[in-house]
Amino acid sequence: KAVVDKKKSVVFSKLLKAIAVAAREESNPAYNPRLRTLIEKARENAVPTENIARAIAKTADSAALEEITVEAYGPAGIALALYAITDNRNRTIHEIKNLLLEHHGKLAPPGSVQWAFDGDAPKFPQQIQENDRARIRTLINALERHPDVQRVIAAMAQ
Question: Inter-axis angle of helices 33-44 and 2-25, to 10 degrees?
Fold first, then answer.
């Protein structure tokens, strides 16, 4: 039960952070499609309605939250785009950098990876060997477990 609760907690906190940031633009979901989509996703994941309402209500506090994009290279030189919401940019980038180093990856300079993606899809998916694919999957899983990271996109062929 503790393991299941911990996984739920991570999902809840990620969704509620995203809702708080989206509500900064417009707190009425009828006029904010991004917020509406996040609320629907939160409901699909059984986030209590009170928690959603609280996240929307504390938009003034969410001024401390910011969205960041981190560009990186994983094993075999695969381009990675990471999207995170954080209250401390330096801490989050440092923690992501450490995760990348542990899994044979490295940070990339801003703008050096983003060109390889068209929204959420890679423009030029790379074919890679199976052992490198396993290493990249391990890295992506480690990054997605980080509480600030919202999504990770890799430029590799499925």
Answer: 170
Which pLDDT band, with edges at 50, 70 and 90, does 27 fall under? confident
Give whole-number Cα distances, 130 to 32, 58, 121, in Å: 42, 45, 21
Strand 79-86 relative to strand 66-73, pairing: antiparallel
DSSP-assigned letter for residue 68: E
Q: How far is the C-alpha of 86 from the C-alpha of 51, rounded, in Å? A: 19
Residue 19, Ramachandran bin (φ over 0: left; ψ between -120 and 50: alpha; else beta): alpha
- Check: pTM over 0.85? Answer yes or no: no
Between CA 142 and CA 8 the distance in angstroms is: 16
Pairing mode of beta strands 66-73, 106-107: antiparallel
Cβ burial of 83 (10 Å; 0-12, 13-18, 19+) is middle
Residue 63: pLDDT band with limits 50, 70, 90? low
